[in-house]
């Protein structure tokens, strides 16, 4: 450790490299698979073409699934960010027992196995007529995204010093003005980080969506889920590639924001 | 001061009401279904406990989760260790390597493995070319496939807490051990490893708990040959409309998860390992 021999360091480096390759490389397999010329997936493809991208774009079902996903993700993000940011601000003012209990409640959707949440929400959504609607699925996804917003905004709030607030109050600013001019600019990176995380949580989510989406409102992951089990055509790889591209873009945005803001864990 | 209290309440109210209506109440309503069987309040649990099939599913779920937790911890070790040693570009490179998979949908990652593990897929062709096997191995639609996929998805959850624990180790302890004449192996066994243990246990528990409730990966990579508890719950509803059985199985799953969490709450670096550095 302090002066570990060369063979040990080499062993650690090589095995770490192999594990990292195992973590990252298999994910990329869908990208070449999506450029198949054949009507079934071969890897590496015998011949390359973009025909499955055309098939994806010209198929109304896939297009509709993409829009349904975006629609649901926007609802989920708005609900999670609004309720989660307010909750983090409220939690920040609490101390002791009530803070512990409420934190537990806000993080609970992360701890309860998703299959359990999915089944419970599905049952209640059926009873109140929200099953199969974008609103129902959006609310369910907001549930899963809420903990990430509370955590992200909560961490950002720790960077806001009490003294700044007192100084602002001493200079005659009211509570709303203090929030708008001192607190909000400082927690903005946390809110945006939470929003990005909420969006990707909803956009990627399958388990709840498989139950709640219904026929008319299939999201992209639900359509992929069904297609994998029915057919194994490269058009599924196209959809999966699109999801990877979107995730990478959002990941990059979040990283840039965290660099420009303070230290933001992702 | 009263005004401040009202403000705090108003800030907390939307999330509390939302969680109550959309999470707590649905869970309570679902679990109440488990006790509504005509044969008596605990009849559904008796059905789950008496059936050979269901018992096998539960044992299988438990064993797969255990194996996945063990494998991830072993694989996490070199990566966590190397993260504490690397600096600058290579550190960022390795850290992004761990965090990047987090951002990719579990469904997409599972689908990738389906392509790779296929009977005539790249991995089997590679193994045949190497001469390791002369006919394709069955890597898909069995426990092997499930474990490969789950290890892949859950590995970052094991790496981050372990890395956190390794980072907190005071290097002077290792030097002291070295200076007192302990060899490399003894220093590892008696100083380094015990200090890593909280992170190791935290990561393993986290992976184990997540494995117990995993649905997508076992459903696609295991199929009907490797049924897990979550797949059983889904099939109770989709194939049989047996809500009371689904409710009972869900309750069992949740209680096991919560009990394990409570038992390991002291060891588990909650929040810290995942979200702080």
General description of the model:
The complex is a heterodimer of chains A (266) and B (277). Chain A is an all-alpha fold and 266 residues long. Helix content of chain A is 77%, strand content 0%. Chain A has one domain: MetI-like fold (Orthogonal Bundle), CATH 1.10.3720. In chain A, helix 4 packs antiparallel against helix 5 and helix 9 packs antiparallel against helix 12 (234-260). Chain B is an all-alpha fold. Chain B has one domain (50-275): MetI-like fold, CATH 1.10.3720.10. Helix content of chain B is 78%, strand content 0%. Chain B contains 13 helices and no strands. The radius of gyration of chain B is 23 Å and the shape is globular. Chain B starts with a helix and ends with a helix. The interface between A and B is large, with 88 and 82 residues.
What would you say about this model in short?
With 266 residues, chain A is an all-alpha fold.
Characteristics of this structure?
heterodimer; A: about 270 residues; MetI-like fold; 12 helices; disordered C terminus; B: about 280 residues; mainly alpha
Per DSSP, what share of the residues of chain B sits in E-state strands of 2 or more residues?
Answer: under 5%
- Low-pLDDT segments, ≥5 res of chain A: 262-266
Averaging pLDDT over every residue of chain A, what do you get?
A: 89
Distance N to C terminus of chain A: 29 Å
CATH architecture of chain B: Orthogonal Bundle
What is the percent of helical residues of chain A?
Answer: over 70%
CATH superfamily of chain B: MetI-like
- The CATH topology annotation of chain B reads as MetI-like fold
Reported for the largest beta sheet of chain B, the result is: none
- What sequence of helices (H) and strands (E) makes up the elements of chain B? HHHHHHHHHHHHH
Oligomer: heterodimer
Unreliable stretches of chain B: 270-277
Bin the helical content of chain B: over 70%
User: What is the total domain count of chain B?
Assistant: 1
Q: What is the global morphology of chain B?
A: globular
Summed up, the domain count of chain A is: 1
- Largest sheet report of chain A: none
What general form of chain A does the structure show? globular
Name the structural class of chain B.
mainly alpha
Class of secondary structure makeup of chain A: mainly alpha
């Amino acid at each position: 450790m302090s002066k570990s021999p060369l063979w040990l360091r080499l062993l650690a480096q090589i095995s770490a490299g192999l594990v990292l390759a195992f973590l990252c490389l298999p994910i990329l397999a869908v990208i070449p698979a999506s450029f198949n010329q054949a009507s079934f997936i071969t890897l590496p493809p015998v011949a390359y073409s973009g025909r499955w991208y055309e098939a994806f774009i010209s198929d109304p079902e896939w297009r509709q699934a993409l829009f349904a996903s975006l629609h649901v993700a926007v609802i989920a993000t708005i609900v999670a960010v609004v309720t989660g940011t307010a909750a983090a601000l409220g939690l920040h003012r609490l101390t002791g027992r009530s803070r512990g209990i409420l934190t537990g409640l806000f993080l609970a959707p992360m701890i309860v196995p998703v299959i359990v949440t999915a089944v419970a929400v599905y049952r209640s959504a059926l009873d109140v007529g929200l099953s199969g609607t974008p609103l129902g699925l959006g609310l369910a996804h907001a549930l899963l995204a809420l903990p990430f917003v509370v955590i992200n905004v909560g961490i950002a709030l720790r960077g806001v010093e009490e003294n700044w607030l007192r100084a602002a109050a001493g200079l005659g600013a009211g509570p709303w003005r203090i929030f708008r001019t001192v607190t909000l600019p400082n927690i903005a990176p946390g809110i945006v980080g939470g929003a990005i995380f909420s969006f990707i949580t909803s956009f990627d989510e399958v388990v709840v969506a498989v139950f709640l989406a219904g026929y008319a409102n299939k999201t992209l992951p639900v359509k992929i889920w069904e297609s994998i089990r029915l057919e194994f055509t490269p058009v599924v790889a196209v959809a999966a590639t699109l999801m990877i591209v979107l995730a990478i873009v959002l990941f990059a945005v979040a990283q840039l924001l965290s660099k420009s803001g303070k230290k933001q864990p992702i | 001061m009263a005004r401040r209290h009202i403000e705090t309440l108003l800030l907390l109210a939307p999330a509390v009401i939302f969680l109550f209506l959309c999470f707590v109440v649905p869970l309570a309503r679902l679990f109440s279904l488990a006790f509504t069987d005509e044969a008596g309040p605990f009849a559904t649990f008796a059905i789950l406990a008496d059936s050979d099939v269901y018992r096998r599913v539960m044992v299988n779920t438990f064993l797969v989760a255990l194996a996945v937790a063990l494998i991830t911890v072993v694989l996490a070790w070199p990566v966590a260790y190397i993260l504490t040693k690397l600096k600058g570009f290579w550190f960022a490179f390795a850290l992004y390597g761990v965090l990047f998979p987090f951002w990719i949908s579990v469904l997409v990652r599972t689908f990738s493995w389906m392509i790779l593990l296929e009977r005539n897929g790249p991995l089997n062709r590679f193994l045949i070319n190497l001469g390791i096997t002369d006919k394709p191995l069955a890597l898909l639609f069995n426990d092997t496939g499930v474990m490969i996929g789950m290890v892949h998805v859950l590995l970052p959850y094991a790496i981050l807490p372990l890395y956190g624990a390794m980072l907190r180790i005071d290097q002077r302890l290792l030097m002291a051990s070295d200076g007192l004449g302990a060899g490399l192996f003894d220093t590892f066994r008696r100083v380094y490893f015990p200090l890593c243990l909280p992170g190791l246990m935290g990561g393993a528990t986290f992976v184990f708990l997540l494995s117990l409730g995993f649905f997508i990966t076992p459903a696609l990579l295991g199929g009907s040959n490797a049924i897990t508890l979550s797949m059983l719950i889904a099939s109770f509803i989709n194939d049989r409309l047996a809500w009371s059985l689904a409710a009972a199985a869900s309750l069992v799953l949740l209680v096991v998860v919560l009990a394990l969490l409570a038992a390991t709450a002291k060891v588990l670096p909650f929040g810290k390992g995942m979200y702080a550095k």
